Amino acid sequence: MTARTRTTLAATLCVAATVAWLVTGRGEFWPRWVYFGVGVVLVGRLVLRRALRVPAGRRRWLALDAAVCALVAGVDLSVWVLSGGGYFWPIWTLLGIATILGSHGWVVSRPPGARERELAERIAALTRSRRGAVDRQAAELQRVERDLHDGAQARLVSLALTLGLAGDLVRRDAEGAARLLEEARGTAIAALDDLRTVTQSIHPAVLADRGLGDAVRALALDLAVPVTVTGDPPPDLPPAVQTAVYFAVAEALANVAKHSGATQAAVAFGQTRDTVRIDVTDNGTGGADPARGTGLRGIIGRLDAIDARLHVSSPAAGPTRVTVTVPREPK
Amino acid sequence: MLLRDGLIRLLEAHDFEVVAAVGSGPDLLRELLAQRPDVAVVDVRLPPTYTDEGLRAALAARAEVPGLPVLVLSQYVERLYARELLADGRGGIGYLLKDRVSDIGEFVDAVRRVAAGGTALDPTVVAKLLDSRQRVLPLDRLTAREREVLAQMAQGRSNAAIGSALFITEKAVAKHTNSIFAKLGLQSSEDDNRRVLAVLAYLET
Q: Which is one Pfam family of this protein (chain A) (predicted)?
């Protein structure tokens, strides 16, 4: 029903009642009860719609409660006025309504319980990490674009140019053309090198081929400090988790090689029923501060996005232990 | 696919006979076992999984036919894979970056070396081997020259080849290799391949 038909209908009812009263000899003014009925319907509709505009949740229930209470109070007061006043009986309904509305308001305004606080914090953390993940992704794409643009792309342009020159020269100066071709080969290899660096920084090849366990073993082999790797991650870890953990371990191992002065390091995979745990330990000097390094901060951001936690224990005399815990997906 | 056709052309131009060219891991394994070629050139990544299908097929074939010569090509070289390829200690193993194909002479040389039961490891792998363990292994007792010789040796080169690469006589190379073996506590041997494997085995421990 549109607003116009609704208004027309209401007006017609009121006018008809008034006309009927005029025609039937103007006794007691009963049409006021018709006005009252029409008014209750219109006003009721209005306040309920108002209340429903409040966002879903406890506040909407309170608004609905308030709307209904206001309507009941309005009806009672109107009836009292229309029936000629006298003993102010609506006081009792008004008192009841005030009690109901007051206690409801008190319940809503009370501080949230522990469970609810936990959920609110979790939502805040998720919002933060989602924003972080999006920002990081954008920055990462920008870096890849820049690397490709300045590296492989530039080299391929120069390669095309050199090949063009060689083609130009091949009949007149075979020797010069051969020199240019040799140069072109060098450029092609350099372009391949650039591409390799970029693709490895996005997603290392061993990780794609073999998964997290072997990728970490390959990392360990390449480190200047001997690293023993024990255990294996569960094979069903999602790819995003594997990548985040891989870069976390890579950063931790790089720090071992760069800062710790260690002669031995170890990576251990372990798991409980609902977490996967990766420990990177060394026998170095300790005193590592995760708040200082930018590398570790980036890693924490990455881990946040998969709900994983990073813990660094590094007393001044060593040893350093970096622990990553990842919640397992509920089965 | 692009690389395969190019390689066939290249190898046939250098008097190799190409007995089979396949495009997937299972096909590769079947052909390797059926044809028992003098040497196989294999890409690490092959269908159906596009992971390390080629490498696995090569390893499986060598488990069946010990010492079957295989030259593995890849966009990346990983020490982990080098170790797996060399693990059976039998030689006839090559592991090179695809880029190396562009140096035709070197590449054909590597194919022949692998076919003859030798090794051809990519210089990148060798460099990683040498870089990473310097601090903790007796390698730091080697002189700069000896380290150069070791790097060449690990790529599978003979003394004569090392001599010409470093512009020294074969005799001088032999002197260096003996000194390397002495410092690393290894028995010297005339066999090129055992030599490399010994060095690698030592570096892997």
A: HisKA_3
